[in-house]
Amino acid sequence: MLEKALVGSKRYWMWMGLLAALSVVGFAFYLKQFTYGLGLTGLSRDVSWGLYIGQFTFLVGVAASAVMLVIPYYLHDFKKFGKIVILGEFLAISAVLMCMLFIMADMGQPMRFMNIMLHPTPGSVMFWDFLVLAGYLGLNLLVGWVTLGADKKGIAPPKWIKPFIYLSIPWAISIHTVTAFLYAGLPGRHFWLTAIMAARFLASAFAGGPALLLILALIVRKLTKFDPGKEPIQALAKIVTYAMFANVFFLALEFFTAFYSGIPGHTHAFHYLYHGLEGHTEMVGMMWTSSILAVVALTMLFVPQVRRNEFTLVIACVALFISLWIDKGFGLIIGGFVPNMMEQVRPYWPTFLETMVTVGIWAIGLLVLTALYKIAVSVREETAGVEIDH
Amino acid sequence: MSMDRRQFLKITGISSILGLGASVASATHPIWMPGVDPDLVSPNAQALTAKRWGMAVDMTKFRSEADIKRVVEACHSIHNVPDFGNNPDGTKNIKDEIKWIWKAKFKQAFPEQATELNEHLEEAPFLVFCNHCDNPACVRVCPTKATFKRDDGAVMMDMHRCIGCRFCMAACPYGARSFNWRDPRPFIKKEKQNRKYPTRTKGVVEKCTFCTERLAVGQMPACVEKAPPGGLVFGDLDDPKSAIRRLVSTRYTIRRKPELGTGPNIYYVIGGR
């Protein structure tokens, strides 16, 4: 099936060329960082994780969100998702790939990454995160490829794939739970030390991931003959709405606990992020942008007429995606580090190099995603009109 | 099991190809773990040993800024800690900064013990460094066991195994860990470099090690040696007769963030005499 990614229109190749160019530029900046060290980023001993780890965390959520298609389709027999479930699985593949690249970009000694396997440490959450991410990548590659391959031949997928599909459901939940545990188990980081962290992660993932998928599905429909249908889009929109409501509700719970208890350590990070602390207001603009976009998106999604109109729906999804990207891909990490352990405010801001490496990794992810979607869409175009029961 | 000459040569041949020949030297050393057999190495008879190393800090014994500076400099120069100096605008370069022991204000070292009305205490200087915790969060989170706790309590770093993920820096509630954001070697003054202690590479984490390299040859930690008498008391907290134990048992001491359950082994004597 891979050959389908190698034939395409001029527009397809121009898009792939652009992404390839951005990847190369990003990689060139990475080489500079590789030679000099992570000192070329905005990080310091006070804020030791930043944009890279934020992007990693956000993308684990995008990857996990494929389960929001797999559950209705395979567990509840919601046939309408039949066409787009492959888009979810392929999105997961590219998201996990980006996660791994962001981890590599963040490592001080990337050549030693196999030490995680050479000296396995079951007590470390990062060891488990590495395992579940690699496993999830494998599962989605297997399931996506086998089901699409069967579709191409016009036959039902083999029975042996079913256990892997069912396994991918708890596995998706696990990747984001384990990622939340990276943060939620650290003594002394009040902003992260919250039992609701994994639940928040899942809620924001199940809002942001499907929102992105919805946008992607509509783009695919516009550019190709592949039509996911109106109903699956509306079903996705409802999933996004419920999940976003849960996410905003959970964030509100964090605010309540911090400010009603009034415990200084619990309020400091919120002060820094939303109001500024000791004259440092670097994050305030970003965080309020995120909050306003969240309210706008949620309000739009709540009104049935707005949600049913695909044009306004896309606007709501874009707003929601940007809101979550800021909140989880950036604010969440920085809030854990500022103020530092000595209650000093030592701010962080990504450097140009860091931004370009990030752009490069997103470009690689989009490149892989485009190729995978090209394959899926080509197969679907060939078998248009044929309904296969999975 | 009998083994003929041919079989014996085969096995030894394959073993040496695999680099496992060295482990043949000891019968007890498992063949799948190449390296030096600890049973073949005898400890230095002069080495200082303990069940649980700890330190008591009495800042009232430090009479001046110079007393504090001398201690910090002794540690940093003996361990080849780089000095990144100042930014072009004259402020301290805190972006690349690496420190093993440093001076902090009381309100920074003990933020949850704020005594707003005692301005003198709030601003008073305290030496802070790794707490060599009983239950270290950094060791718990490390994905490669590059940071680990020794039987004598010292929390150590293996700079050759560290992958630079910095999970330990996120986990340490004391900010005791530093990362080599760039090659540190150009920032170690040649004339000051200690040839007996390794320099580090970029991309690894480092911190205070309780001077285990000095303990191994019977010397006290460098900071203890350079501190005014009674300023830094180092010893075995599990030995009821040790000076540190008697001090900690009889005087009012506080520890940094004990409520987090990390079990810090650095005690700060309050109200000197």
Brief account:
The complex is a heterodimer of chains A (390) and B (273). With 390 residues, chain A is mainly alpha-helical. Chain A has helices at residues 10-36, 51-64, 67-75, 85-106, 115-118, 125-153, 161-184, 197-223, 230-261, 264-274, 284-302, 304-308, 310-337, 352-382.
Examine the coordinates and then state which fold CATH places here, giving the name of the CATH topology of the largest domain in chain B.
Answer: Alpha-Beta Plaits
The end-to-end span of chain B amounts to 73 Å
Domain unit count of chain A: 1
Order of helices and strands of chain A: HHHHHHHHHHHHHH
Name the strands of the widest sheet of chain B in spatial order: 8-1-10-9
C-alpha-based Rg of chain B, rounded: 22 Å
Q: How many strand units of chain B?
A: 10
Briefly, what CATH class of the largest domain in chain B? Alpha Beta
Give the rounded overall mean pLDDT of chain B: 89
Gross morphology of chain B is: globular
The amount of helix of chain A comes to over 70%
Q: Per CATH, which architecture of chain A?
A: Up-down Bundle
CATH class of chain A: Mainly Alpha
Q: Could you tell me the strand content of chain B as a percent range? A: 5-15%
Largest interface: A-B, 45 and 50 residues
Measured between the Cα atoms of the first and last residue of chain A, the distance is 19 Å
Report mean pLDDT of chain A, rounded to a whole number. 93
Structural class of chain B: alpha+beta
